[in-house]
């Protein structure tokens, strides 16, 4: 049928929608509120421990401290090894109960990725979004490098051209900053999914009975897709139970809780409870895999 003469399409301005994912940053539940608090405390600990010399190695001046006292290099290195293996040991048991919680709650690198996502999202309509993201990731990379270097070097070497390690310290700072920036800017959470050895280990060993996000089939879902959009790991929280744990399944979930937060936020105006829940909650009706659902209803695929 011909188009009526009195009707015309409005002339929309062409817009390029940036490839951003919704970055959720305002906590809705107590869970995500505590996640932010723990992440802030961990970052503070990374700064304070070497600053207070509770554990600090200074290879540039051949000085080493443990619990505020100067020690030999061997003792300080032993403390580092104990701390390192202790972290693995705690992580082994923690993982059995709470999966990849370490990635979502503890890892400062994950926090930087998250901050990058938030900036990317907040500036999604800003014409200088790309530039602002480059700048912020550069600042994050420099800050992270300085924090890490402060555990092993004296940062004042950077402003002391007379020091024997002046050049080396700058080379380390530049090298690590470039590496950190490339990972932050080009990979984001893909690094956590595909390269981080800790993350890969946790993906493999995470058990189905540990803490995880489940979809309650007894509750309504408005199919808004927000849970998928908000997930930093590019997972589909509603379908995680039917996926290979290491390939889109619960093994890759970092338990950030953002999907549950947005689901609650979305369902609140409907006056309905959120279908996404923690598996520790009660009265959850698990969603059956598609083939089982077909068989029980007698319908043919
Ligand atoms: S599935 Fe949910 S809890 Fe897991 S990483 Fe994605 S948003 Fe976070
Ligand atoms: S956010 Fe909640 S309501 Fe929206 S699609 Fe996901 S599970 Fe369904």
TrEMBL record:
Q: Which Pfam families match?
A: Fer4_18
Keywords of the record, alphabetical order, are: 4Fe-4S, Electron transport, Iron, Iron-sulfur, Membrane, Metal-binding, Transmembrane, Transmembrane helix, Transport
Where, by residue number, does the polypeptide cross the bilayer?
34-52, 64-85, 97-119, 131-153, 165-184
Q: Which InterPro entries match?
A: 4Fe4S_Fe-S-bd, 4Fe4S_Fe_S_CS, Electron_Trans/Redox
Q: Which GO terms describe its cellular component?
A: plasma membrane
Source domain of life is: Bacteria
Q: Indicate the segments forming the 4Fe-4S ferredoxin-type domain, all copies.
A: 211-241
Q: Which GO terms describe its molecular function?
A: 4 iron, 4 sulfur cluster binding; metal ion binding
Q: Which SUPFAM superfamilies does this one have?
A: 4Fe-4S ferredoxins
Any keyword Metal-binding?
A: yes
Protein name in UniProt: 4Fe-4S ferredoxin-type domain-containing protein
Organism lineage string:
Bacteria, Pseudomonadati, Nitrospinota/Tectimicrobiota group, Candidatus Tectimicrobiota, Candidatus Entotheonellia
């Amino acid at each position: 049928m011909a188009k009526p003469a009195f009707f015309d399409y409005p002339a929309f301005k062409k817009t390029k929608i940036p490839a951003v994912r919704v970055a959720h940053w305002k906590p809705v539940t107590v869970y995500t509120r505590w996640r932010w608090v723990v992440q802030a405390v961990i970052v503070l600990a990374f700064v304070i421990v070497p600053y207070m010399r509770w554990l600090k190695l200074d290879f540039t001046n051949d000085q080493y401290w443990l619990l505020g006292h100067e020690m030999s290099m061997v003792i300080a290195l032993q403390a580092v090894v104990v701390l390192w293996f202790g972290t693995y040991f705690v992580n082994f048991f923690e993982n059995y109960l709470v999966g990849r919680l370490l990635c979502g709650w503890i890892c400062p690198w994950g926090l930087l990725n998250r901050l990058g996502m938030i900036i990317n999202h907040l500036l999604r309509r800003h014409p200088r979004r790309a530039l602002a993201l480059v700048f912020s990731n550069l600042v994050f990379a420099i800050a992270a490098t300085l924090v890490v270097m402060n555990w092993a070097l004296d940062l004042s070497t950077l402003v002391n051209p007379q020091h024997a390690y002046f050049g080396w310290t700058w080379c380390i700072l530049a090298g690590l900053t470039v590496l950190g920036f490339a990972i932050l800017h080009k990979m984001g959470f893909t690094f956590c999914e595909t390269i981080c050895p800790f993350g890969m280990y946790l993906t493999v060993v995470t058990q189905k009975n540990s803490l995880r996000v489940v979809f309650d089939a007894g509750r309504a879902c408005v199919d808004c897709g927000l849970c998928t959009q908000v997930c930093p790991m590019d997972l589909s929280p509603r379908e995680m139970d039917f996926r290979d744990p290491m390939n889109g399944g619960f093994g890759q979930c970092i338990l950030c809780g953002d999907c549950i937060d947005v689901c609650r936020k979305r369902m609140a105006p409907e006056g309905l409870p959120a279908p996404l829940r923690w598996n520790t909650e009660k009265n959850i009706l698990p969603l059956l895999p598609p083939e089982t659902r077909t068989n029980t209803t007698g319908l043919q695929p």
